[in-house]
Amino acid sequence: MVEVSNAELRVMQVLWQQSPQTAQEIVGQLQQDFDWHEKTIKTMLNRLTQKSAVTYTQQGRSYLYSPAISEKAYQEQASKSFVQRLFSGKVTPLVAHFAEKGELSDKDISELKALIEKLEDRQHD
């Protein structure tokens, strides 16, 4: 599993939105939302490359960066890790926590019900 810090995740999100991109393009996008120095962002790109989360190709004097893992694959591995670490691998306590705190919207509840129905249908097939 690729471990990515919260700051590095912001870099990944820029690349998931559009890739490949040059370091300057990535820096430009991140500096719109964060007060980060160019050197900091380039250091994160290097770390992500070392972690095999990002790949690059050289084009002339520039490097074009692309994500090496899809956003969906990252979300799956990160969510499994999160549930495992905090809830011993059980999803029910996580959902119960949000329900007890009143943090589930009507839409969330409807989507959860639909998901449960879909899962139940699969078990009966």
TrEMBL record:
Keywords: DNA-binding, Transcription, Transcription regulation
Pfam families linked: Penicillinase_R
Gene Ontology terms describing biological process: negative regulation of DNA-templated transcription
Domain of life: Bacteria
The keyword Transcription regulation is assigned to this record: yes
Presence of keyword Transcription regulation: yes
Annotated GO MF terms: DNA binding
Signal sequence interval, chain numbering: none
InterPro entries, per the entry: BlaI_family, WH-like_DNA-bd_sf, WH_DNA-bd_sf
Family: Belongs to the BlaI transcriptional regulatory family.
Name assigned to this protein: Transcriptional regulator
Source organism of this protein record: Aliidiomarina shirensis
